[in-house]
Design brief:
- It is built from two helices and twelve strands.
- The chain has two domains: about 10-165, Immunoglobulin-like (Sandwich); about 165-239.
- The chain is an alpha+beta fold.
- A hairpin with a 4-residue loop joins strand 1 and strand 2.
- The model is unreliable at about 1-15 and about 15-30 (pLDDT under 50).
């Protein structure tokens, strides 16, 4: 299958998907196992795609697809094209093509029957930016009526949001810097508290010393005054 040229309309749509992935990183995902879910349903066929919630560039991801039929039908072809934005060219590019069911081996489904398959070896390019999105290529035939009807659909959806190692490093360094500033502030506060306590103790000791000195001075003055008084009161001796 030939790679389609990117039109202006497609670029706008893909930019919107990228923006939604940023605003709602956990939409349709189970936070306990970090899986993103995409569901496509039309007539008697339901398709579920499970992929990682987040990933790093240069990382291999698994993409699981499950189909469930509510009527007799045949899935003629199923594949997922994987795209990302190139951080150098700022253009979207296809980097993987996962074929699950091909025209040479179509799958027949009875009512309530399900089928599931997982691809394990899709590696995200090192130049990938922000998000990986997929285009589901789906061809199936409804066989439950007298006349069979074949449908072809190609919905686009988010596969995974991409982490930025450099941004995470900067965030980590920022958190460490904040922690260092907090530690310094705590140390400074503790030092100021110690200075305040020492000053309070010093002022208390100075106050006590002043009280003792005042008491001694008053006592001395009283003793001198008493002595002078007694001397003055001493009877004169006549010879």
């Amino acid at each position: 299958m030939k790679t389609l040229k990117v039109s202006t309309f497609k670029t706008v749509i893909l930019t919107g998907l990228m923006f939604l992935a940023t605003l709602m990183p956990f939409a349709g995902a189970n936070s306990s196992d970090q899986i993103r879910f995409f569901e496509y349903s039309l007539y008697n066929l339901k398709i579920y795609v499970r992929s990682p919630l987040e990933a790093y560039p240069n990382q291999s991801i698994t993409v699981n697809i499950t189909a469930t039929a509510s009527a007799k039908l045949i899935i003629n072809y199923t594949a997922i094209e994987l795209y990302t934005f190139n951080s150098s060219t700022m253009k979207d590019e296809k980097f993987a093509y996962i074929e699950y069911i091909n025209y040479s081996s179509p799958l027949s489904f009875s009512v309530g029957q399900s089928w599931s398959e997982t691809s394990y070896d899709s590696t995200i390019p090192e130049s990938a930016l922000s998000v990986v999105y997929g285009k589901l290529i789906l061809v199936w035939t409804e066989t439950g009526t007298d006349e069979s009807t074949t449908y072809t659909r190609e919905p686009t959806f988010i596969i995974t949001s991409l982490k930025n190692p450099e941004l995470e490093r900067v965030k980590m360094e920022n958190e460490e810097l904040k922690q260092n500033i907090t530690d310094i502030n705590n140390t400074l506060t503790e030092a100021l508290n110690n200075v305040t306590d020492a000053r309070n103790r010093y002022e208390g000791e100075i106050g006590n010393t002043r009280s003792v000195a005042t008491f001694l001075a008053v006592t001395t003055i009283f003793f001198v005054a008493t002595t002078v008084y007694l001397v003055m009161r001493k009877p004169k001796e006549y010879f």
